[in-house]
């Protein structure tokens, strides 16, 4: 799939998570709602992307913040199994619920610290 861009927030007009992918489900631009939300939530694993969202002022938008809250359904089964990098994805999604973090991620020092932390975690997992 192409690189993730902020989603169309009109898809989050209901509070229920989308059903798991099935045949015959409506498609938006060739993808199901679940596929679009999955691609977007996975992009949140990147501290650089979080910084980009903050710089574009998305993290100041109440509808966008509500969308991030809605996406927390990915933290529960059966949705978690679809995430390629569940650790950083869910950690960052949780951090994005905090106003302080949404402001702090504008700092390149915070971004760099997150990148370094992620690299250390990867090295630890390889050596374990």
**Rg to the nearest angstrom?**
15 Å
Low-confidence stretches: 122-126
Number of domains: 1
Q: What is the SS-derived class? A: mainly alpha
Helical fraction equals 40-55%
How many strand elements? 2
CATH class: Mainly Alpha
- Count the DSSP helices: 6
The string of secondary-structure elements, in order, is: EEHHHHHH
Can you characterise this structure?
The protein has 128 residues and is mainly α. The protein has a single domain, classed as Mediator of RNA polymerase II, submodule Med31 (Soh1) (Arc Repressor Mutant, subunit A, Orthogonal Bundle). It is 51% helix and 3% strand. The protein contains 6 helices and 2 strands. It has a two-stranded antiparallel ribbon with strand order 1-2. The radius of gyration is 15 Å and the shape is globular. It starts with 26 loop residues before the first strand and ends with a helix. The model is unreliable at 122-126 (pLDDT under 50). Pfam families: Med31 (PF05669). Component of the Mediator complex. Belongs to the Mediator complex subunit 31 family.
Concise description?
The chain contains six helices and two strands; from the N terminus they run ββαααααα. With 128 residues, it is mainly alpha-helical.
Provide the fold topology:
Layout: E1 27-28, E2 31-32, H1 33-43, H2 47-55, H3 62-70, H4 86-95, H5 99-104, H6 108-127
Antiparallel strand pairs: 1-2
Search tags:
Mediator of RNA polymerase II transcription subunit 31; nucleus; single chain; 128 residues; transcription coregulator activity; two-stranded antiparallel sheet; mainly alpha; Mediator_Med31; Arc Repressor Mutant, subunit A; activator
């Amino acid at each position: 799939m192409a690189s993730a861009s902020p989603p169309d927030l009109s898809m989050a007009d209901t509070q229920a998570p989308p059903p798991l992918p099935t045949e015959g489900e409506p498609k938006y631009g060739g993808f199901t709602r679940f596929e679009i939300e999955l691609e977007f939530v996975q992009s949140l694993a990147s501290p650089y992307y979080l910084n980009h969202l903050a710089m574009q002022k998305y993290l100041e938008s109440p509808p966008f913040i509500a969308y991030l809250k809605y996406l927390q359904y990915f933290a529960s089964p059966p949705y978690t199994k679809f995430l390629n990098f569940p650790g950083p994805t869910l950690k960052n999604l949780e951090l994005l619920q905090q106003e302080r973090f949404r402001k702090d991620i504008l700092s390149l020092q915070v971004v760099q610290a997150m990148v370094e932390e992620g690299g250390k975690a990867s090295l630890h997992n390889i050596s374990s």
